[in-house]
Amino acid sequence: MLPTFAMYRLFRPLLFHLEAERAHRLTLAVARLVQPWGLWALTPYFNYEHPALTVQCWHLTFPNPVGLAAGLDKNARLVRFWEALGFGFVEVGSISARPCSGNPPPRLFRLPEDRALINRMGLNNDGAEQVARRLQRMRHRRPLGINLAKTHDPSILGEAAIADFCESFRRLAPLADYVTLNISCPNTAEGKTFEDPKALDALLRAIFAVRRELKLSIPVLLKLSPPPSNRTIFDSQLEEIVAVAQTHGIAGFVAINTASDRAELRTSPAILTRIGPGGLSGRPLATRARCLLFYLYRLTEGKLPLISVGGIDSVEEAYARIRAGASLVQLYTGLIYEGPGLVRRIKQGLVEKLEQDGFDSVQAAIGIDA
Ligand SMILES: Cc1cc2nc3c(=O)[nH]c(=O)nc-3n(C[C@H](O)[C@H](O)[C@H](O)COP(=O)(O)O)c2cc1C
Question: Which superfamily does CATH assign the domain made up of 4-365 to?
Answer without folding.
Answer: Aldolase class I (3.20.20.70)
